[in-house]
Specification:
Elements: H1 5-30, H2 35-55
Helix pairs in contact: 1-2
Length: 59
Amino acid sequence: MGMNKNSIFAWASFCMLLIGIALVLLGVLKYQDYAIGFSTVGIGFFVMSWAFNALKGRV
């Protein structure tokens, strides 16, 4: 049995959540000069992850 659209949205939102966390942590821990930019992009990934999660079962 293959993946249906709900499981694809679930995996996509999980991967985007991990990328968002990684970006925020990179900005805070490693590249402190660019922390605002990294954090802004990381929060953007959180928002897109939330939107993908909200789309499960509706598309």
